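Example record used in the benchmark description.
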Amino acid sequence: MKENIKKNSIRDILEALGDDPQAEGLHIYISKEDITENPFPYPFRSDSYTIMIILSGSAKIQFNLIDYKLQADDIVLISPHTVTHVREIESSMSIIGITFTLTFALSHSLNRNEVNAFEFFASKTALNLKLKKEEVESLVKLTNLLHEKNTTVSPFYGKELLLHSFNLLMYQVAEIYRERYDEIITKMTRKEELTSKFIKLLEENFKKERKVQFYSDALYMTAGHLSKILKNVSGRTTGELIDAAVITEACILLANPTLSISQISDELNFSDQSFFGKFLKKHIHLSPSEYRKKT
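Model output (structure tokens):
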């Protein structure tokens, strides 16, 4: 079943943004006009890595059930399999997006053994930081250079120029994250650490385990204490986060027309299709078939 889950490819993402594909495995998106409407009102996974820089505006975006508010001068790194859900475009946005596949990254890396420089790509969650003005300016220049080398056919050293432009940008991003890595870890509170552990546990078990007690036992605390911590960090209780995980997965599966509603109900371990329909109707006010028609 997992192999059948629909993911947004680079091409799918570009189609939603109204842009044309560039080189195989790499695309640089630079807003030609402000984004005012939500291009992705549904949750989705991607088959690629994305570095997104917010130049202006703001949006509420959910990554793996955790809410983020992205604003001007923010950078966010999104790994494959992260569930992304754009909740709201709060004010018209101008962004830069560098999207690439793992195959492209490996074939265009100067030193494949330099794991530490790019360890942030191993993360299953989105990583975001506030950039300094000079960092934004530097990354914009490097992105424009990469865009030029990715869209211009050179008769002599086109591949080499693309490779070095890509690595120059990647190392610049790596330097920013490396500089702040210890600071990020130090600032992570005990509550945030527990929330991170809960989310990982949830990702691995939500299809079969939906009782709060299972998660609180696994984290060696009472159900009430766990809910209090999660509410403080994420704004939602344990039960609400479990339901959100099921709803998000259901929406992703329903976006795949090759799967029947009965198959999806079985994949999510509902006792029957009717119970699945009632669950979805309760939480998003749409039946599975009604939601499928809207996507």
